[in-house]
Amino acid sequence: MHDRAARSRSGLNSKPPAKADGADPRIHVTLPQLRALESQARGLRFLPRQPAASVFNGRHASRLRGRGLNFEELRNYLPGDDPRTIDWKVTARTGKPHVRVYSEERDHPALILVDQRMSMFFGTKHAMKSVTAAEAAALAAFRILDQGDRIGGIIFGDEFAAEIKPKANRSARDQFLTAIVRANQMLQADAPAIDTQMSLNVPLRTAARIARRNHLVILISDFDGINEETSHLVGRIASTNDLILCPVTDPIAEEIPAGLKLVVSDGELQIELDTASGEIHKRLAEFSSGRLSEILGWQRKYGLPILPLSAGEETVPQVRRLTGLTPAQKLVKP
After folding, report:
1. What is the pLDDT of residue 41?
2. What is the structure's pLDDT at 35?
3. CA 289 to chain centroid
4. In this predicted structure, what is the pLDDT of residue 251?
5. Which pLDDT does position 254 carry in this prediction?
6. What pLDDT is stored for residue 208 in this prediction?
7. Distances (CA, A) of 6 to 11, 16, 116, 121, 217
8. What separation in angstroms does the CA of 256 have from each of 27, 270, 291?
């Protein structure tokens, strides 16, 4: 019943794919559905060395930092040492060349922020934005843990936020996936209206508290309700961490058709918007492009990689394409 109402609300009225429990995987995700993505996550990279076609490559945006360096010791220079590691102040003071020795940090903890607010419960072609976000988060979680890094996350809806601190074990990953599924299945077409939607700034503040430095932070959201504080928090997190923004959009946002009648509801009240009206069409188009312009502004200002996701196509192929992998490439570990 809920899936039928959601399909009607979103426009996904075609026959849903077959599924054992009868649920529509385009509307709501299940734990088996997310776990089935594990094998398809191999080959994805969230490290500094990237394929040439990847959006994470330095040609497209600032390179990811990757793991940081820990200072180990100061010692005498030995033949074969990299001259760039010479500490010239100590060398001048002692009269003998000294080098600073560093070791690579053992892991690069990751924090994945997954938006499951009601604004994400919308789709017109392939799936709901909330489903695309859930699948992308699962792909990232599988790959990051496979790299040997700690995985954690913040899954948030309109009235709650679940926080999973980064840990390097499957238990943390399963807890993360379970939290996504629970949040996703709470989204219903006939859900009662709420007074206020959770601001994106709330989970971003939590992320800034947890990820103080050298974390990989991935934000998967439609970025509804952003403001000046959002920009400040994005910049603050990006200044000491690797931050990847994954804006999730629906194809209708890319080009709003003229003459389209939309019924918008908050669960109790509803209004019909007719894009045949030039003024309404203009305002909707400006609203859609304005949000994307803001995100692209952050990319330029803070040097952030942007991984744009569309709910209008399958998640795995587009993530592989954006990370520089082609369908023909073998799934191999780096």
Report:
1. 86
2. 95
3. 20
4. 84
5. 61
6. 96
7. 8, 12, 15, 8, 31
8. 22, 20, 15
Phi, psi of 168 (to 5 degrees): -100, 65
Amino acid at 187: L
The set of long-range contacts for 85-92, using a CB threshold of 8 Å and a minimum separation of 24, is: none
User: CB-based contacts of 255: which residues, under 8 Å, 6+ apart?
Assistant: none
pLDDT, tens digit, 9 for 90 and up, residues 249-280 = 888 766 555 555 555 544 454 545 444 555 54
Residue 67 and residue 104 in contact, taking contact as beta carbons nearer than 8 Å? yes
Distance CA 46, CA 66 (A): 8
Closest CA to 169 of 154, 144, 151: 151
Written as one letter, the residue type at 211 is A
**What CATH number labels 2-63+107-322?**
3.40.50.410
Find, among 132, 122, 127, 55, the residue nearest to 315 by Cα: 132
Phi and psi at 151, nearest 5°, equal: -125, 135
Contact 180, 134 (CB under 8 A): yes
Q: How far apart are CA 228 and CA 204, in angstroms?
A: 13
Element (H, E) at 66: none
Residues with Cβ within 8 Å of residue 331, at least 6 apart in sequence: 39, 40, 42, 43
Which helix (H) or strand (E) segment holds residue 197: the answer is: none
Q: What is the pTM of this model?
A: 0.73
Positions of the chain with pLDDT lower than 70, given as ranges: 1-22, 45-72, 102-107, 193, 195, 253-290, 325-334
Where in the chain are the domains?
2-63+107-322, 69-104
